[in-house]
Amino acid sequence: MRSDKVKKGVERAPHRSLLKASGYSQEEISRPFIGVVNSHNEIVPGHVHLDQIVDAVKNGVRASGGTPLEFPTIAICDGIAMNHRGMLYSLPSRELIADTIEAMTLAHGFDALVMVPNCDKVIPGMLIAAARLNIPALLVSGGPMLAGKWKGQRRDLKDVFEAVGQAKVGEIDEEELKEIESHSCPGCGSCAGMFTANTMNCLTEVLGMGLPGNGSIPAVMAERKRLATRAGGRIMDLLEKDLKPRDIMQKEAFENAIAVDLALGGSTNSVLHLPAIAAEAEVDLDISRFDEIGREVPHLCNMSPGGSHYMEDIYYAGGVQAVIKRLTKLEVIDEETRTVSGQTLGEIADEAEVLDEDVIRSADNPYHEEGGLAILEGNIAPDGCVVKQSAVAEEMLTHSGPARVFESEEEAVEAMYEGEIEAGDVVVIKYEGPKGGPGMREMLGPTSVIAGIGLDKEVALITDGRFSGASRGASIGHISPEAMEGGPIAAVEEGDEIEINIPEREINLLVEDEELQSRLEQLETIEPKVKEGYLARYSRFVTSGDRGAVYEK
Ligand SMILES: CC(C)(O)[C@@H](O)C(=O)O
Ligand SMILES: [Mg+2]
User: Fold this and answer.
1) For residue 366, which of 246, 298, 342, 524 is within the disulfide window of CB 3.0 to 4.6 Å?
2) Annotated active-site residue in 468, 475, 539, 544
3) Contact partners, residue 101, CB within 8 Å, separation at least 6
């Protein structure tokens, strides 16, 4: 066993002594050490209930002959971190989570891992750790939050962010805002729309690293606890067979995940996280694959923020399994990929049933002919950028307008509230990339103000930062190379004409090449915004969005 290095033989008497001091019997020490990664905390609604999930996992491990050894990792609530400097820590926390798990696992010689995430960066952080360590591992998430409801209308966190814009322009009063804030997020779980957390928890199933139901069983259902107990048992089987993450997360598994992501209308953050996880698994995954697959995979689920369905609807409609089943009919799924359930993805799809034709539509009646995400290129984004086209109004799929240039999210939002942004404008927020932010903030503030003040059908927003899964509208992010790396977005000036054509996958600055070149040559060097602490180190090693904002190797 891997754990023999900390517990076997005469020279490991001190180590056993310490394990006994922690309360483990000789019998428990002799069994496989299963690290149980608990991202519980009392701040993030997706994590406040995880102790119950972890207890169920540990019961499952014990019942199957293992010794569970629980340890914590961090979890940031992107919603609470949004719209201020706190959001600088969101994406960088993904690397901290992966590094924490690596350190604890190798320091203590765990034989296998069961990891319990739920919100945004915790899932990719754990999957990166699984790919890096490559010991038997699986994830079981905390599950989605139910949708809220008020005045007969179902709501989720997106509605609260957008209500801020409505209140600021006097469309609703403070009283109504308070009611919306109190009734849109009803309890524990990852916010109910197809935002980043639910996207990544669903894609964990498709990658093969979570059991069927991992992404869709609501957090408050007892079925979620039963799933966790089963996960605790499954890890012992994976250990027995020595089935490791890199045997599971192979190229075909990532392409299956991209196909389901596109059918679900998943978060643009999946375009950061899947390439980052693939890089750690030494699988070559270029973001252009999202576009190539997106041309063949229709958008089958009309999920919030662009649509009106929530995760519980997916659950009652048959789960992610039913979405996979739909896609097997299109032959865009490799059905032989393996999963931690012991079944292939095709076997899981065979057992699935679509229980609601409107929540999970068939390919001959999709919500959109193409997948939810599109990758654009042009002289502003030579290395690409991403837009959730399934959440863009028809009239904004092609748009030209004057650039309104800002160097931070705060400057842009202030201009919006001051009424300085007009119909037709293209808001440009630069120096918010992985290096420039640093930390590549999500721009849910600006996108929800644009939507909240009713400009989402007339104003586009482009940035080297990124967007929340709750963002909608013509919001184009991850522009690469970022401004801080001297990318052309750095040379965009107020009033420049910008042309966006999502169907043609183009985004261009209508400025002569010579002019653009000379502007780039005259760019003055921008001092890093953060000079010490974790973010200073992070910004020195991180790469642009097109590479998943991974560290330079
Ligand atoms: C706050 C949210 C909804 O979690 C957002 O950050 C996302 O990425 O989906
Ligand atoms: Mg987020």
Assistant:
1) 298
2) 468
3) 35, 37, 73, 113, 115, 125, 126, 129, 133
Q: Which atom of ligand 1 is nearest to the CA of 79?
A: 1
State the first-to-last Cα distance of the chain, in angstroms, to the nearest integer. Answer: 30
Residues forming a β-bridge with 149: 154
Q: Whose CA is nearest to atom 4 of ligand 1?
A: 78
- State the pLDDT confidence band at 169, using cuts at 50, 70 and 90: confident
Atom of ligand 1 nearest to the CA of 469: 9
pLDDT tier, 454 (very low <50, low <70, confident <90, very high otherwise):
confident
Burial of 59 (0-12, 13-18, 19+ CB in 10 A): middle
Only one residue has tokens 């360590």, namely 133
If one counts every other C-beta atom within 10 angstroms of the C-beta of residue 361, the result is: 21
CA dist 126 and 128 (Å) reads 5
Residue bearing the CA closest to ligand 1, atom 8: 468
Task: State whether residue 279 is helix, strand or coil.
Answer: helix
CATH for the stretch 374-547: 3.50.30.80
Q: How far apart are CA 20 and CA 6, in angstroms?
A: 13
CA 524 to each of CA 277, 491, 520: distance values in angstroms, whole numbers, following the listed order: 35, 10, 9
Handedness of CA 362, 364, 366, 372 (dihedral sign): positive
Ligand 1 site, CB within 6 A: 78-79, 120, 157, 191, 195-197, 267, 269, 442, 468-470
Beta bridge partners of 461: 427, 475
| Second CATH level (architecture) for the domain 31-144+185-351 | 3-Layer(aba) Sandwich (3.40)
- Does the annotation list 506 as a binding residue? no
Element containing residue 212 per DSSP (H, E): none
**Confidence at 303, pLDDT banded by 50, 70, 90:** very high
Helices (H) and strands (E) in the chain, counts: 22, 14
485 vs 499: CA distance, rounded Å: 23
532 CA from centroid of ligand 1 (Å): 27
Global model pTM greater than 0.95: yes
- The CA 389 to ligand 1 mean position distance, Å, reads 17
Cα–Cα distance for residue pair 363/88, rounded to 1 Å:
39
Question: What are the boundaries of each domain within the chain?
Answer: 31-144+185-351, 374-547
Is residue 539 flagged as an active site residue?
A: no
Q: Ligand 1 centroid to 74 CA: how many Å?
A: 16
How many CB atoms are closer than 10 A to CB 481? Answer: 23
Ligand 1 binding pocket mutation candidate from 444, 472, 475 (most atoms within 8 A of CB): 444
